[in-house]
Amino acid sequence: METKIFYSKEQLARFFGDYLSSLTQENDQINIALSGGSTPETIFDVLSQEYRETIKWDRIRFFWGDERCVPPGDPESNFNMTHQHLFSLLSVPEKNIFRVKGELPSQEALEDYREVIAKELPSKEGLPLFDVVLLGMGDDGHTASVFPHEIDLWDSSELCEIGTHPTSGQKRITLTGKVINNAREIVFLVTGKNKAEKVDEILNEKEDYQKYPAARVNRDKSLWLLDQEAVIS
Ligand code: 6PG
Question: Whose CA is nearest to atom 11 of ligand 1?
């Protein structure tokens, strides 16, 4: 596991922009699963403003690690957030965007996305292979949309599952652990004071840390990008 700590979200975003620039210089095609929530918004704003030319955007095929079961125009939609903060400001070819169809009933959205990732991605060890999986972490230690109260979803034999937000009850489609851990590289983007306690427990393997889904991510492939607020000094 590698950990990098940044003074600010913007500095973290620039590191990630340089990381993506290198990847798209060295590869003709990159399959990436994006994370959702609010953290990526700032990252995407920096990328759309400062990395328009340096990242070869037409080489990236965009998927999601998880998506809320809402229509694509809903403020809660991770696709909608990405469209507003990234896609609408860059010329990302429509054919390279593979969103979860959150407008469908959740079981249909699940089955559709299972087919999409099985069909559209190369395979390694018999599983869909992402070049990069971007992950966030909730202040309860969830990642993607595998929450602590249903951590068994992480070990599902399926490629993705339906998660349920513990307080809102919102249904979400999420990749499962075996797909996330099959990726070439996994990058956590975690910022903010409210994450610091769980970051400390997980990175320092404190008592019971394995009860958090974020702790189940393959540590050998994980790069944690943190701002100072997310680190207990
Ligand atoms: C989502 C995410 C989720 C997110 C964490 C952190 O759909 O919300 O994919 O796993 O990464 O909840 O969210 P914040 O960045 O908003 O704290």
Answer: 136
Best of 9, 70, 143 to mutate for ligand 1, by most ligand atoms within 8 A of CB?
143
CB atoms within 10 A of CB 105: 10
CATH at 94? 3.40.50.1360
pLDDT tens per residue, range 183-215: 999 999 999 999 999 999 999 999 999 999 999
* 3-class DSSP state of 2: strand
Q: Which amino acid is at 109?
A: A
* Measured distance CA(138)–CA(196) in Å, rounded: 11
d(CA 159, CA 168): 24
Count, residues in the chain:
233
For residue 72, the enclosing domain spans: 2-175+183-230
User: Relative to the CA of 67, which ligand 1 atom is closest?
Assistant: 7
Question: Relative to the CA of 38, which ligand 1 atom is closest?
Answer: 16
What's the number of domains the chain is made of? 1
Question: Tell me: the pLDDT tens digits for 7-57?
Answer: 999 999 999 999 999 999 999 999 999 999 999 999 999 999 999 999 999
